[in-house]
Amino acid sequence: MGMCLPCLGGAADDVVVTPDPETRRRQLAEAAEKRQKETTYRGVKNPEAVERKRKKQEEIEKQAMTTSVSGGGGGGLKWQVG
To answer: What is the rounded CA–CA span in Å between residue 28 and residue 20?
Structure first.
């Protein structure tokens, strides 16, 4: 019985300090973002090129939407009844 007590004396040194909830939440969010980024670019040799292509495609789609709205949605065609 007396042999177990000396090992409990150093137990205070082994205690892991838990960070406050806000710090923990931030760390978990960062880890989730990192995992998501790794999953998104899995198997891609050049993730920057993929990102540039995606942004360019979004800009083209956005420009097409703006053009179709301002042009009457008909692609520049006008109906003439006569």
So the answer is: 12
> In Å, how far are 12, 30, 80 from 17, measured between CA atoms?
11, 20, 78
Cβ-contact 33, 40 below 8 angstroms: no
Put simply, whether the predicted model's pTM sits higher than 0.70 gets the answer no
pLDDT at position 14 over 70: no
Query: Distances in Å between the alpha carbon of 53 and those of 6, 50, 56, 62, 68?
Result: 64, 5, 5, 14, 22
Residue 10: the pLDDT is: 56
CA atoms within 13 A on the CB side of 62: 6
Q: 47 and 41 in contact (C-beta within 8 Å)?
A: yes
